[in-house]
Amino acid sequence: MRFKRDKVATVHANFLDPRSYVSHRIHPGTAHPCQYLKGKDVEIIRLLVFEKEQGRCWNCGAYYGWNYGELRHLRGGGGAERCWCAENLGWGCPKCHRTEHVRVRFGERVAQ
Q1: What sign does the CA torsion over 84, 58, 69, 100 have?
Q2: How confident is the model at residue 1, as a pLDDT?
Q3: pTM (2 decimals)?
Q4: Cα 70 vs. chain centroid, distance in angstroms?
C-alpha cells in the first residue's frame, strides 16, 4: 500500500534509494511526517536504532550484535502505521522478534 508522497520533503530528505519517501501523514504524537524507507535508507535507520537501543533486545534484554539482532516495528501491519520513523522502531533478537509474527506454513495439515 502506498501513501501520498510529499514530493518537496522527499527531495529535501536526500534519500539514497529512489523508492524511499516522506508522506503527508503526520506520525502520531509528533509533529513530523512519516517516512517509508527502502534499501540503503533502511540500513541507516537500522544503525541509529541499534545505537539507541545499545544492541539490547526489547524483550529478553540480552545483547544482540549488529549481525544477529533485528530491527522491528513497534506498530506494524500493512497499513500507514508501519512507517520507518525512529519512534516506531526497536531492536530485538530473532527469537523474540519471531514471537510477534504469525508464520503460515503451507502444505502442513493440522491434526483434528
Answers
A1: negative
A2: 43
A3: 0.77
A4: 10
